[in-house]
Amino acid sequence: MADTWLIVGLGNPGPRYELTRHNVGQLVVDELAGRRSESFKAHKANARVVETWLRPGGPKLILAKPNTFMNVSGGPVAGLAKFYGIDADHVVVVHDELDIPFDTIKLKVGGGHGGHNGVRDVAKALDTPEFPRVRVGIGRPPGRQDAADWVLDPFGATERKNLPILVGDAADAVEQLVAEGLLATQQKHHAPRV
C-alpha cells in the first residue's frame, strides 16, 4: 500500500525500561496513538501495533512497538513491513540519539547507525539502511558514566520537566514527515529554537 507508513518506536520491553532514555522512541509512538485515542494490540510479528490514520482519509499509519529488546528490533520491524507490504522508504524509525543534545530532534534517511544497535539491527533485517529516522536527542552522559548505563537510566528530574515537550515535538516531526516529506520537516525541526 503506497500511502501506508510504519512508524516504529524503538525501546526495551517491560516496566523496568518504560521511562528510560533508550525508550524515548516508544514514548513518541505512545504520544501518536494517544492523539488518536487508540490502544496498542498484540501482533503476530512480535510487536504491539495501532492501525490508524494521519488524518481521516489517509495516509494510513501503523504505529508499532517491538516486544523484543532494543538490540534485536529488526525481526519485528521487518515482519511488520512484510505483513503490511511497506517498503523501507515508508518505515520511520524513532529512536534515542546520544550524539544529539537533549531536547533536540534531527531527521535523516539512510547513513550509518552511529553505534545504535537497534538501528543497526533494523537496517540488517530490512536489508537496507535507507529508511527515515527521527532521532530524539538524549545527550551524552556526564563525566565518565558509561553510555550503555546512561541510556538505561530514567530521565533526570530536569529532563522529565521538558520530556513531554520533546516527545510532542518528535511526534509532530513524524506527522510532518509523513504529510510533507523529509526536507520540509528538517527545515522546521533542525532550525535553532527561538
From TrEMBL:
Organism domain of life: Bacteria
Enzyme Commission no: 3.1.1.29
Keywords of the record: Cytoplasm, Hydrolase, RNA-binding, tRNA-binding
Subunit description: Monomer.
Compartments in which it is found: Cytoplasm
GO CC annotations, alphabetized: cytoplasm
Molecular functions per Gene Ontology: peptidyl-tRNA hydrolase activity; tRNA binding
Binding site for tRNA: Y17, F69, N71, N117
Job of this protein: Catalyzes the release of premature peptidyl moieties from peptidyl-tRNA molecules trapped in stalled 50S ribosomal subunits, and thus maintains levels of free tRNAs and 50S ribosomes.
InterPro entries tied to this protein: Pept_tRNA_hydro, Pept_tRNA_hydro_CS, Pept_tRNA_hydro_sf
Gene3D superfamilies: Peptidyl-tRNA hydrolase (3.40.50.1470)
Name the record gives this protein: Peptidyl-tRNA hydrolase
One Pfam family linked to the record: Pept_tRNA_hydro
Catalysed reaction equations from the record: an N-acyl-L-alpha-aminoacyl-tRNA + H2O = an N-acyl-L-amino acid + a tRNA + H(+)
Site (Stabilizes the basic form of H active site to accept a proton) residue list: D96
Organism (species): Microbacterium trichothecenolyticum (Aureobacterium trichothecenolyticum)
Residues the UniProt record annotates as site (Discriminates between blocked and unblocked aminoacyl-tRNA): N12
GO biological processes: protein quality control for misfolded or incompletely synthesized proteins; rescue of stalled ribosome
Family indicated by similarity: Belongs to the PTH family.
Active-site residues from the entry: H22 (proton acceptor)
